[in-house]
Amino acid sequence: MAKTTASPVRTGLVHLALISYTLIALFPVFLTVINSFKDRSSIFRDPLGLPTPSVFSLVGYETVLKQGDFTLYFQNSFIVTAVSIFFVLLFGAMAAFALSEYRFRGNTLMGLYLALGIMIPIRLGTVAILQGMVAAGLVNTLTALILVYTAQGLPLAVFILTEFMQTVSDDLKNAGRIDGLSEYSIFFRLVLPLIRPAMATVAVFTMIPIWNDLWFPLILAPSDGTKTITLGSQVFIGQFVTNWNAVLAALTLAIVPVLVLYLIFSRQLIRGITAGAVK
Amino acid sequence: MGSLKIENIVKSFGHVDVLKGIDLEVEDGEFVIFVGPSGCGKSTLLRVIAGLEDATSGEILIDGKKVNNTPPAKRGIAMVFQTYALYPHLSVRDNMGLGLKQAGKPADEIKERTKVASTMLSLDDYLERRPSELSGGQRQRVAIGRAIVREPKLFLFDEPLSNLDAALRVNTRLEIARLHRQLKATMIYVTHDQVEAMTLADKIVVLNKGKIEQVGSPMELYNAPQTVFVAGFIGSPQMNLIDAAKLGESGAKTIGIRPEHIQVSKTSGDWKGSVIHVEHLGADTIIYLQTDFGPLTVRLFGEHQYDVDGVLYATPDAGRTYRFDSEGQVIKS
Known about the structure:
The structure holds two protein chains of two kinds.
Chain A: H1 8-36, H2 40-45, H3 59-66, H4 69-101, H5 107-116, H6 126-136, H7 142-165, H8 170-178, H9 183-194, H10 196-212, H11 215-220, H12 229-233, H13 244-270
Chain B: E1 4-13, E2 16-26, E3 31-35, H1 42-50, E4 57-62, E5 65-66, E6 77-80, H2 92-102, H3 107-120, H4 136-149, E7 154-158, H5 166-183, E8 186-191, H6 194-200, E9 203-208, E10 211-216, H7 218-223, H8 228-233, E11 240-243, H9 244-247, E12 254-257, E13 262-265, E14 271-280, E15 284-291, E16 294-301, E17 311-316, E18 321-324
Parallel strand pairs in B: 3-8, 3-9, 6-7, 7-8
Antiparallel strand pairs in B: 1-2, 1-4, 4-5, 9-10, 11-12, 12-18, 13-17, 14-15, 14-17, 15-16
């Protein structure tokens, strides 16, 4: 190991790279947020300007909230995301437990098969999915979206969680078996609490694409009652006139819940209760 | 209550036979230690007894009842693991009580039995703590307490002292010995440390490559090893195993002599050698010699001064040498 205090230049460069990346990543968000608080003309006249009192306007938010349906869209997004994450974590963890804990023929092949979905985008199957949903009568339901997103999230979840499950001490699981815990209790009461950080990681990775997705809501559930927030914001984007105030306000509002979810999960990422389990 | 009988246990993982036909009887109240090099199958055997692994063939009987298809929790066993394996999210009290709770015992009884165990192990002050707030030695005591609370027919220990530092290891060893006397329970203990085996066991089972090499009391194994492997494994420093042909002896393949059964002299003796290295341990002095027939270790009691590269003559004590045939079996004289 090099002396950690030795090269301030090096540390400086690393930080410079990280800070510039952060700025690049945050810039669109920043732009969206500041412009959502400005009136229409100053959005175009001075897009980079801060919302000073003279140009400050909440007209975008008023439009969005007056639209009325937006609460529903939020609710739809929220239900779809939360339920999908729940199923991805539940089924992903169960599959990962089976793959890491039990010896059976074809274990490795099964693992590879389940991980294959990481490489193949689910959108390739859109037509088939749509046909399936039509046949099942699930078009324009949130169930359709939840099913698709659960399928979409599972490969990565199984992949990450399998790796983590292998790090959970065998002795601990065996101690549970000797104490008379069923395999389900071992899974829910011993293993899941220990891999909470990994679950949080998977939740974050799964959540963001679902929340932001426009494709499947547009195809599978475009009706007024089932629109998600991303799809709902599109009503303000017209072919000839776009209500930028409203679009920016809707997008800003859409950031908030996902930010809250992220904060909840990232606390779990940092906390880990593994200390003291073994060794 | 608490006897174990194993009949012709075979365990294979795919094409690899880890246990190749083990027969063993453990009587009620015995302290039996499985010892052997890593990979010899001793932990696997313990897991098969516990029911954590299924035997490929053979029978396991606890108190005369076949338990091959009985799940671990119903076999009347308790196990202490090398890594302690405490439940990290439960307090010490709940860790110890979980097994009884799962078995559906009333709360009063659980409390009572936890109390007895924690007093026995002086854990009373720690009952409300989480495992992460305990030291290594305390954690292992909790793990032992968890086993005691279940009042099992069989205690199984899987290298319980390996993660502890040297001083703590001696203390915990004494504690386990005391518990065995106090509880009069049957205990099966796996270790690769022959000092633990020699000091704790009523009966030692030496395993090698999935087979039992020899079963006997510590002193039987020390004084009358049946095979070259046992001779080399039991005793520290290791027994000198010398190619008989190089010594000009006929009728044996290997000659064994323990380091403590050799006398040295600067002037005369049977075997001439030069000193390679001397270790001073206070109570013992260990001398490594290079002789015509290879290296020779000598253990002298007390403090002795010998110069490295000096010439010494070694003489084995009469009647203390062992002769082994080409199969590695001892030749009875």
